[in-house]
Amino acid sequence: MAIAVEMPKMSDTMEEGLLVAWLVDEGAKVKSGDVVAQVETDKATMDLEVYDDGVLLKRLIGEGESVPIGGLIAILGKESEDFSSILAKYGKAETTVAPAASVEASPLGARTMEAAVATNDGRVKASPLARKIAEEKGVSLTGIAGTGPEGRIVKRDVENAGPVTMPTPVVAPVSVPTPKPMPPTPAPKPVVAVGGGHKSLKITPMRRTIARRLAESKFTAPHFYLQVEADMERAISFRSDMNKLAESRKLSKISFNDLVTKACAVALRNHPMVNASYLESEGEIRLYDHVHVAIAVAVDEGLVTPVIRNADQKGLAQIASETQELAGRARARTLEPADWEGSTFTTSNLGMFGIERFTAIINPPNAAILAIGAIRDIPVVKEGSVVPGKRMALSLSCDHRVVDGAVGAAFLSEVKQYLEEPNLLLL
């Protein structure tokens, strides 16, 4: 009996998936657990496995196409088996999806003659599987022609990697006519601009999900904002001492963001209403027994929020190590659902960009998010004298359905205390 292969739900926020690359041709035999395609979700590019043995009878979508969860992707079965009933069930016509080579051709031209496309930060766009194969073969991705969507390098590109040759341009001889006298130039007439050029970017599954969830958060959860400034002089000295110790023990160096993560985690344990969610569908406010802090990480398509689980129970070196690893995997689009699901609180840091202060939109279903600004050198008054000081702005966005003003203020005050007396984080 023929079996329908549907688009699975690969994350808690996923609504559709974009098929990046087919890894198995029609007519090929597959076994349960085989990876047949790569799918880009709102969080990462992930492998699509099949759960049955058989022959891949039909590929119903092409590379670069998006399909909602539960949509038909392919059909498995026995060789030459009739699958018209499955097509009818999903409302599909008896059509043939163009093979990969045909799908690759686009209005942008034949990608086989192009070098790999790089992102704004110089990183070559490539699927995780392509990167793995390139590493195993000792092949550099630079210069490999990408045939996936938007020039992304996929598995077959690495396997077929060879020298990229470009056609030699042929220049026809040009005859230059003898110049003729030009008529007088008429007086210029007013020119009215009727329009301008523009560049269109396709909305990716990640960007669509970000837009939906943040709009839902902003217009559903009544936000209010609390702001304080933390004196970071002791934190700077503390971090320097801790990193000398970490270096001697070959541990991960600690960032200021790691200090904030730990400070929030300890404070959340003492303020359960901030470590909570408003669940309208369940008719309850859920107070969590665990403290899972999500860290906002910028990627090409937007933001992802990998989670440091049980952050209140972990040391600073462990938090630093996990944060570095998760941030790297987030940028490489290799996170798994377990890496980003289940947060109870979120932090967002733009201080490294010189942003002094900002407010963030709550990451649902969290009840609050902390925005972290840059450490600034400013004059401060101490014991009646103006002296140099180092201050960092912290802005807490709260869901007023869960967090009252006094509760949010008490939590933020405790976070500030831990940053100003960082030795307390070691107790």
Structure description:
The chain has 427 residues and is α+β, with helices and mostly antiparallel strands. It folds into three domains: 3-98, RNA polymerase II/Efflux pump adaptor protein, barrel-sandwich hybrid domain (OB fold (Dihydrolipoamide Acetyltransferase, E2P), Beta Barrel); 111-159, Dihydrolipoamide Transferase (Irregular); 220-426, Chloramphenicol Acetyltransferase (2-Layer Sandwich), CATH 3.30.559.10. Helix content is 26%, strand content 24%. It is built from ten helices and 18 strands. It has helices spanning 84-89, 100-104, 128-137, 155-159, 205-220, 233-248, 256-270, 316-331, 337-340, 405-420; strands at 3-6, 16-22, 29-30, 35-40, 45-49, 54-59, 66-68, 72-77, 223-231, 276-279, 284-287, 293-295, 297-299, 302-304, 307-308, 345-349, 368-382, 385-399. The strands form five sheets. It has a six-stranded mixed beta sheet with strand order 9-18-17-16-12-15. A four-stranded antiparallel beta sheet has the order 1-8-6-3, with no helix packed on it. A four-stranded antiparallel beta sheet has the order 5-4-2-7, with no helix packed on it. Strand 10 (276-279) and strand 11 form a beta hairpin. Helix 7 (256-270) crosses helix 8 (316-331) and helix 7 (256-270) crosses helix 10. The longest helix is centred in the middle third of the chain and has 16 residues, at 205-220. It is elongated.
* Tally of structural domains: 3
Number of helices: 10
- CATH architecture call of the largest domain: 2-Layer Sandwich
Major sheet strand order: 9-18-17-16-12-15
What is the end-to-end distance?
Answer: 63 Å
CATH topology of the largest domain: Chloramphenicol Acetyltransferase
Work out the radius of gyration: 28 Å
Strand content: 15-25%
In percent, how helical is the residue content?
25-40%
Write out the CATH superfamily name of the largest domain. Answer: Chloramphenicol acetyltransferase-like domain
Number of strands: 18
**Low-confidence runs (pLDDT<50, min 5 residues)?**
96-117, 163-179
H and E order: EEEEEEEEHHHHHEHHEEEEEEHHEEEH
The overall pLDDT, averaged over residues, is: 83
What about the largest sheet?
A: 6 strands, mixed
Structural class: alpha+beta
User: Which class of the largest domain in CATH terms?
Assistant: Alpha Beta
Shape: elongated
